[in-house]
Amino acid sequence: xxxxxxxxxxxxxxxxxxxxxxxxxxxxxxxxxxxxxxxxxxxxxxxxxxxxxxxxxxxxxxxxxxxxxxxxxxxxxxxxxxxxxxxxxxxxxxxxxxxxxxxxxxxxxxxxxxxxxxxxxxxxxxxxxxxxxxxxxxxxxxxxxxxxxxxxxxxxxxxxxxxxxxxxxxxxxxxxxxxxxxxxxxxxxxxxxxxxxxxxxxxxxxxxxxxxxxxxxxxxxxxxxxxxxxxxxxxxxxxxxxxxxxxxxxxxxxxxxxxxxxxxxxxxxxxxxxxxxxxxxxxxxxxxxxxxxxxxxxxxxxxxxxxxxxxxxxxxxxxxxxxxxxxxxxxxxxxxxxxxxxxxxxxxxxxxxxxxxxxxxxxxxxxxxxxxxxxxxxxxxxxxxxxxxxxxxxxxxxxxxxxxxxxxxxxxxxxxxxxxxxxxxxxxxxx
Length: 431
Hints:
By secondary structure, this protein is an alpha+beta fold. Helix content is 38%, strand content 19%. It folds into four domains: 24-78; 91-259, Ribonuclease H-like superfamily/Ribonuclease H (Nucleotidyltransferase, domain 5, 2-Layer Sandwich); 271-334, CATH 2.40.50; 352-428, no CATH class.
């Protein structure tokens, strides 16, 4: 019945002492082995060599590994774990975890942010290209709205996104995040260092996200990814019966909902304020992308309000531009046609005035070519004035003046007009 040998039963009946388990004959050198383990950084091969070289003791490798396992020389003995008993509406937990996913057949690193109610285990997850304090406030505001209330305590890790400095009970929350928490009547509490079990209610679902949500799903964009994540939370994660609860998180949430702190009546949009100087092309640079503003703001300092879905540009307390925010790509450009009217293309080839002047006289052609060299650009204004002289005065006097001006290299059109008048004064005026 006991499943032991007859000899063992006879020994117990006779009252003989039960023999102690067999010990190793090398246990006398245990203290030396402990010292060498620290000296050799846990390398058992070096411990075996040092025992032989320094102490003249030769211990077989299998006996050495048995001593390490039996006396736990490498790993500290495991301690008994406890359990956190949390009441409805008492605590919620927040954490992030990176994943490698494919977006539109491109592999990217996505930061998965999650929030869980500690009592009902109801979770909410979203994915972001990066996770700064701006993304943290955007995520938490959406998560609080999804939960339709908050718990007064939110356990977080010691990341610099929420913690300004320090760690654990001595951590100082960043003023920006502390002010955000006051809006919702939430206090952020970092757990002790190397104690992730303190927020196990949100740590455990990350493995579920990896094995259930990300497995076998494809995503075309960040918006598609987050839309599927929200649908998965509603239809799968929060609808599945949990063994520890005996019900689904959504059913347990119905018992917890009345204990949550209600949301504020008015919640302002989360934004980040940045100051920029408009570049020479009338664009402002935000997060490696460029957004157009009216041309009159070139070189001026403007205020840029970065929201999650849009970007607004203000100058002198007036909104000058608004664009959809780009967060899926870099080095992109958004241009509002009303900000940048089409630039006049440079005219190529001879102007209309030059075409009317040339082709009739070789002297006039040479004079037009010399006049253009003296002018900037195509010399349209000077050629227009020369064409007016040609139309206004007699052709013979005009041609004589052109030949004489070309001979002396004179391209002052006012003096050219005086020369024309000198040639015609005897014909039209009785002086």
